[in-house]
Amino acid sequence: MPKIVDHDARRDEIALVACRVVAQVGFDQATIVRIAREAGYTTGMVAHYFDSKQDIVIAALRLILRRIEERLEPREGAEHPPLLALLTEALPVDDVRYTECAFWIAFWGQVPADKRLKQINSWLHREYLRLFERCLARGWPEWAHWPAATRRQVLGSVVNFINGLTASTVASRTDWPPERQIAQLRLQLELLHGWASGGARVPAVRRGAKALG
User: Fold this and answer.
1) Is the predicted pLDDT of residue 77 greater than 70, yes or no?
2) Does domain 80-204+209-213 have CATH number 1.10.357.10?
């Protein structure tokens, strides 16, 4: 009887290997030949699933997003973890998350020069905003009562902080052990919560100024 191949699982496997290779050697050195060798496949097998390295990278990005979403979305019926514990899932606090984050940083370096990757990055940014907004709404019951402008400001600050902390950790992992990352995230959440709960006023954007994220 011929072996039944789960093609979706194989695509995910190749994408995950690509994520690890890019995190280890960088985007330019992560050739299809190298990815295939690390995955234990021939280049022909990889080419059967992906037309180009860019397609592998995009598949890896979608896979990581799906994995993060699974970590940030508690299973139905499960108790919701505290907000700090939930958002810690997005930080590079262990080897798996560090590899994902190192891949993200390598990807960001390619975005400015590639129109297709810019579009993918914009879509990913919207998805992350959606995920984090749900986390904040669950973690802070008062979230729904804050003005919309305040919620946007807090959400943007959380996402930008996590991105910045991720980049710092990938650049210098020894300087940012898990406990320091978590302590900084805790402080950021406390400051933002206090600011928003204290009737914070969001400063108006000057005419002609570029809005952020």
Assistant:
1) no
2) yes
